[in-house]
Design a protein that fits this description.
The structure is a homodimer of 332-residue chains. The first copy, chain A, is of the alpha/beta class. Chain A has 13 helices and twelve strands. A seven-stranded mixed beta sheet of chain A has the order 3-2-1-4-12-11-5, with helices on both faces. In chain A, helix 4 (85-94) runs parallel beside helix 5. Chain A is globular and about 60 Å long. Chains A and B meet through helix 8, helix 9 and helix 10 of A and helix 8, helix 9 and helix 10 of B.
Chain lengths: 332, 332
């Protein structure tokens, strides 16, 4: 198997590192023609790796002594811990020794580190965090889902373009529809920001803008891509997550009471299927879109399947020339 | 029964008007010592009323020939339809012939109409729409849930004060906790607006501020009151609603398949209980807080129980001197 695609993975990031990360990498190299650079404390990572069999040329361990924790202030952590698994991994991308970087570590540090190390695509003002939301008819790519809490109108236009390219090249959506997250469907609805953005999106080239995406319709899959500022995007993301958890908890407590216990037990399989469809490990990671190479954030509590999925998405991102297509569309 | 409290109700607003509105009013006057002024097309309303028996002095019909529809632009509708049920009803409050006004009609027209007719409490910059969200441990009052899409920091401080008073006087919460809706729990998280608001709330008198309320925790009941701008509030509200509907739809489709049908049928009662706990009719209405009298918006699809609950809440609002308490707290 020729392994021309090289992806760096932060072996130390996340609650289940390095065990689940290393396990995911070892699985991925069996499935895909990819070489993985596992970045982290060499002795620990090598010990984890020894549990698996894999092509010798498919995994390489790159040493990094430090680890950035999620409690650290991103700007400080990135500056002080140059020898952390995250900064070393991003450095491999900068030096073109890797084509993408995947980490389940600090979201903020990854964004700051990506900005100063990998750098933005020419013309991109702000990279955005994209999240694949499970909906009733598939997935919706929501961006920005948390990287930029304050946005200017033109940022959102760029998010729409970047999101369209990503949805097409990585998620396999043809001519993806783009909706503007808003509190009403009519053009004149919303705050000052979205009113301005609406006008700009109507006149933007190369995207399939379908108007406002009402929040209530997002879980039903109102459009392939939904754009918004990072504060609103994170609000949508976390509200969805919170309500799913709360509602499933309430359902569990109601249906496992006294007389209903037996019927509830009989429904274990469908409930497990539902939970699985909302499981972020199945989705993979959340890409920072707008850097010169893919920087992918994985949920802190991720397990091996998430890493496998992230590696698959990274391969699609690289093979389909996503960065070049974004650069071209932004300059139109 | 002495009926010193007089409440005006828009008999023509909402999808189920006048039938459900009139029914609710007829039920409420049996339960509470209140007089209801039913505002709408006299002949139609009187015909509906003829189906019920009630104290003669408990319901009066006030004629209003026009109806404002939800499709109309609020500012125009309010200006042109002075003789609509909504504007006549708000006029009764202005003339002190009624102490509160309840309508299931256009949300926007009710806000504009309330502003120009009833007017704001002295010192209040923007009245807010409050919504009672069902949570795992009761209710949370979310405001602003949609009236003001663009907010200045001081508006949110006023929302916190108004929300605290409302939660205590109408919802019966003692020394209610107030959280600031944010995308992280730490003080430094969020956009420019919420960072400024955080500082102001820390130093605000007369409220029990507990810091940031993370969106993911809102459905679990993180605080009694949650404050935010109207765009974010409406985003939270509609995302919660959309996710509940989507998740329940997915569950229904999974558990009513082939072998699971019988077990699912056995769980009808607990599922009905869950749906009921999220039913807006049980909650009543969403108050516009900050006007010189209570102006209450009811869901457009509301039925009689919602009207009964709104009338009950209006009585509590009036009897507990909510407006006077807000005015006092704002001036502190």
């Amino acid at each position: 198997m020729e392994r021309n695609i090289v992806i760096a993975v932060d072996a130390m990031g996340g609650d289940n590192a390095p065990y689940e990360i290393v396990k995911g990498a070892a699985e991925a190299v069996k499935l895909y023609p990819v070489k993985v650079l596992l970045v982290g404390q060499e002795a620990i990572v090598k010990k984890e790796l020894s549990a698996y069999t894999y092509d010798e040329d498919s995994i390489e361990v790159v040493n990094a002594d430090e680890v950035i924790s999620t409690e650290e202030v991103p700007t400080e952590a990135v500056r002080k811990k140059r020898n952390s698994s995250m900064m070393v991994g991003l450095g491999l991308v900068k030096e073109k020794k890797a084509m993408a970087f995947i980490s389940a570590g600090s979201t903020g540090a990854l964004f700051v580190g990506g900005t100063i190390t990998v750098g933005r695509i020419k013309g991109i003002e702000r990279p955005a965090l994209g999240t694949c939301l499970p909906t009733l008819n598939g997935y919706t790519l929501l961006l920005d889902s948390g990287a930029n809490a304050d946005c200017k109108p033109q940022y959102l236009v760029q998010f729409a373009k970047m999101g369209s390219v990503y949805a097409e090249t990585v998620l396999g959506m043809k001519n993806p529809t783009v909706g503007l997250a808003n509190i009403g469907v009519e053009k004149e609805k919303g705050n000052m920001l979205v009113k301005e953005v609406y006008e700009l999106l109507e006149n933007a080239e190369g995207i399939n803008f379908i108007g406002n995406a009402e929040m209530v319709d997002i879980p039903f899959g109102v459009s392939n891509v939904v754009v918004c500022d990072g504060f609103v995007g994170n609000t949508i993301l976390k509200t969805l997550e919170g309500q799913s958890k709360a509602l499933l908890k309430r359902i569990k407590s109601e249906i496992t009471k006294g007389p209903y216990k037996i019927a509830a037990a009989a429904l274990k399989t469908p409930f497990d299927n539902i939970k699985k469809s909302y499981d972020s490990d199945q989705i993979g990671g959340a890409p920072y879109i707008g850097f010169k190479a893919l920087v992918m954030k994985v949920h802190g509590s991720c397990k091996a399947p998430a890493i496998v999925n992230c590696i698959k998405q990274s391969i699609d991102f690289i093979e389909n020339g996503t960065v070049e297509k974004i650069e071209k569309l932004i300059q139109e």
